[in-house]
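Students often ask why we bother encoding 3D structure as a string. The short answer is that it lets us treat folding as translation between two languages. Here is a chain of 199 residues written in the first language.
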Amino acid sequence: MNIVCLDMEGVVTPEIWIAFSEESGIPELRRTTRDEPDYDKLMRWRLQILKAHGLGLKEIQEVISRIDPLPGAKAFLDELRKDGPVIILSDTFEQFAAPLIAKLGYPLLMCNTLEVAPDGEITGFTMRTKETKRSTVLALKSIGYDVIAFGDSYNDLGMILEAGKGFFFRTTETLRKEYPEIPAYEEYSDLLDAIREAY
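And here it is in the second language, the structure alphabet:
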């Protein structure tokens, strides 16, 4: 039986940290997993910047409330879910993702959790498991699923390479060059065709 696993930010929603960077006027926060392969290092760096500027969960959630899914993303997910089970595997956090998941029609999301102080300061984060995306694909395979996976960033490579069939979607030129064996798509319609061919 097939199951599809996909990334969220950059694939079906805009990058939350880029949106927050633009609204807060802090250019350093534009850095994402497209730029930094080490997610733990990236998040600790982000939290230092937030603390230095006195920003917390409330300010980020206000920005997220104004973000909409990428054009065509909900229709793409709706179509994909007609063919079988779909899971969004994201390194985002429950406190960030809820309004975006609502706008996408409540697909299943597996993500992480922020540690937040009473005053709203984000003091840390808890990852669901080690190598969250890859370990989830391994677990799904262990219970009999054939996994099809796609994403756009370094932190998606584990699930893409571990899946029976993997794709890049709207990825960087750097990743295309580093992994030329992974098919890369720019349009939802082309990606949907490729996924259906992989079934």
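Translate back mentally: Residues 39-52 form the longest helix (14 residues). Keep this in mind for the problem set.
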